[in-house]
């Protein structure tokens, strides 16, 4: 599924320009800021061309909570979170979404590290603007972008009656993975097990993003396909570089955790 048009918008000074991909799936993506975590700082070498899918995390002997985040071995989450800097609750969502999607679509070869790389660039893992992620996965205060009113963006008039973004005149990007209401209507999913599909919930947003990624290309298991898939999210080269750098860094952190145990 290929975007028919791309338009950049601003979500605020810290994240810079966002890109709107206008098609059946309309996803809003920030142009890539440089990761500031020490492990992900850029070096003199070029950014990696892609991020190979990290091995699937071990599953929990018994679900630790409802939804996808309960699928992951909690000891793995604790160890990898410490090495990667990803908050444990958020890492459990990325890892659980990858486990769930690979059970359904093993051919997609989606790595949790790719979801984590996108989540870092999109919203700093749900912490942009001082937000935090609760134990149930809810991000608060909600992360909501500017109105797509045509002033610095393409015009996208309201599609949700303000239900999700609080704006009954124009759409706005929302949640830790920055969906706009029109795209959420196509890809929404209850991945937290609370009976509600909520773009402001990290479990729901992570699995919805996984669903999109595995529809954008047949597989993320090779360089060309991975790059094409990230470009479907946002075709800016700086965005691809930042996601690749972060995703590869997170995979390396997980490998360090496994070898140190």
3D architecture notes:
The chain has 261 residues and is mostly helical. 37% of the residues lie in helices and 7% in strands. It contains seven helices and five strands. The protein has helices at residues 74-84, 88-104, 112-123, 181-187, 202-216, 223-233, 237-260; strands at residues 6-10, 17-21, 27-30, 132-133, 139-140. Strands 1-2-3 form a three-stranded antiparallel beta sheet. Helix 1 (74-84) crosses helix 2 and helix 3 (112-123) crosses helix 7. The longest helix has 24 residues, at 237-260. It is globular, with a radius of gyration of 17 Å. It starts with 5 loop residues before the first strand and ends with a helix.
Main attributes of the structure:
two-stranded antiparallel ribbon; 261 residues; 7 helices; three-stranded antiparallel β-sheet; disordered N terminus; mainly alpha; 37% helix; 5 strands
- Estimated helix fraction: 25-40%
Q: How many angstroms does the end-to-end distance come to? A: 41 Å
If strands are numbered along the chain, what order do they take across the biggest sheet?
1-2-3
User: Which structural class should the secondary elements be placed in?
Assistant: mainly alpha
**Envelope shape:** globular
The biggest beta sheet reads: 3 strands, antiparallel
How many individual helices?
Answer: 7
Q: Tell me the radius of gyration.
A: 17 Å
Count of distinct strands:
5
Secondary-structure element order, as H and E?
A: EEEHHHEEHHHH
- Approximate strand percentage: 5-15%
Mean pLDDT reading: 84
Q: Could you list the spans in which at least 5 consecutive residues all have pLDDT below 50?
A: 1-44
